[in-house]
Write a structure and sequence with these properties.
Order of helices and strands: HHHHHHHHHHHHHHHHH
Oligomer: single chain
Helix content: 55-70%
Radius of gyration: 21 Å
Number of strands: 0
Structural class: mainly alpha
Length: about 375
């Protein structure tokens, strides 16, 4: 899932190779439409988790979502593609926010945005699943502690949050972008070279099947991050054929991977009701939506409530799946609410919980952590 700060419109540098001075304070207008698109993508994923697949959620409903939503479960199955849309948005915004930032500032912004709500979500889900009346099994105390590092997947620990696999993909993207673009300093040529080398490297990793290359370069998800970066280059200069070329190649490769992985998913818990053409349509709409934002076509969508939607997206994404199971079981099997009312109420409850996390965790912890991480070491300040 995309983990980004409030989205803002960056002012292009004076020349194609100019990098924004590291010490320049940027006060930038928000891209409200991008905030709204993020929440739409999160709601797509929630629809998939609640009604578009089997697995643990079937225990919450008491039957398969096919039974609960006989006419909608096939549509809900496409909601998993919200993740790919998140990755396109992430490529766009990480390139925008990392342009002209020193490495320490980039690291501080990412860590302070990711960690506060994530830590609370880990503790909250672990605590809820440890309650005796909750039928879902909590991970071991050791694995729960490892989850606080966000490195549970490479370390082979059980995941507290099912959705955290997307954060592992985001972390690898951040690391690649930081090392190849932020550390040496962002310029247009350097970003273009990064996109080209990553695209070729991901293709080679897929062709060779080399585990280390596949792990680092993420062939399945790289096109979406790269496509978002290309769209940010379009945003800076819509006449750049190189930028449009990056977007086009990324889209073509991305839709291939989406169809290949999701048309007939191998896991029996994943519904295979998606058609290849339906997958292509959703991917196309995702790229088209970010393209419209990059070109400024959505500039009139500047409603303030969209900024609230953007602020709720990350904490909602963190808590909606596992705590949603508990909500569905209580509301549907114990309180007797019909399926549609349970679905809507669970979405509302998870959004309310996301608001609480944003209001009482992120509002104070994010700037506090960012300031602490941006602070120079004592020896450096007194040198």
């Amino acid at each position: 899932m995309t983990v980004i700060e409030p989205t803002a419109l960056a002012t292009p540098a004076a020349g194609p190779e100019a990098a924004v001075p590291a010490r320049t304070k940027r006060v930038l207008p928000r891209l409200y439409a991008l905030d709204g698109l993020r929440l739409i993508a999160a709601l797509m994923v929630a629809a998939y988790h609640y009604g578009g697949r089997d697995g643990e959620v079937s225990h919450a409903w008491g039957t398969s979502p096919r039974t609960q939503f006989p006419s909608l479960h096939g549509w809900f199955a496409y909601g998993c593609l919200g993740v790919q849309i998140f990755f396109v948005i992430s490529g766009f915004v990480i390139c925008m926010s990392g342009w002209g930032r020193p490495l320490r500032s980039f690291f501080a912004s990412r860590a302070s945005r990711l960690l506060p709500s994530y830590w609370v979500a880990i503790v909250l889900v672990t605590a809820v699943f440890s309650v005796p009346v909750v039928v879902y099994k909590a991970v071991s105390p050791s694995d729960a502690l490892v989850n606080l590092t966000m490195l549970q997947q490479p370390l082979g620990a059980d995941r507290v949050l099912g959705v955290c696999w997307t954060l592992w993909a985001e972390l690898r993207f951040y690391a690649l972008f930081a090392l190849c673009v932020v550390l040496p300093g962002a310029t247009r040529h350097r970003v273009v070279l990064f996109c080209a080398v990553w695209t070729l490297g991901a293709a080679l990793a897929q062709a060779t099947g080399e585990p280390l290359l596949t792990l680092a370069l993420m062939p399945e998800y790289a096109p979406f991050f790269i496509g978002g970066i290309g769209l940010y280059l379009v945003h800076r200069d819509r006449r750049s054929m190189t930028a449009w070329g990056i977007v086009a190649v990324s889209y073509l490769i991305g839709q291939h991977y989406a169809v290949d992985r999701l048309w007939h998913a191998p896991n029996p818990d994943f519904f295979s009701y998606r058609t290849s053409s339906g997958i292509i349509v959703v991917i196309t709409l995702g790229f088209a939506a970010v393209t419209a934002i990059a070109l400024g076509w959505t500039s009139r969508a500047n409603w303030r409530w969209l900024s609230v939607a953007g602020a709720l997206t990350y904490p909602f994404y963190l808590v909606h799946e596992h705590l949603g199971w508990v909500s569905i079981e209580v509301l549907h099997r114990h309180a007797g609410l019909p399926s549609w009312a349970t679905f809507a109420a669970t979405i509302g409850i998870m959004l309310s919980l996301a608001w609480l996390l944003n209001r009482y965790v992120e509002k104070w912890a994010t700037p506090l952590l960012r300031r602490a991480l941006n602070r120079a070491p004592t020896a450096q300040r007194t040198a």
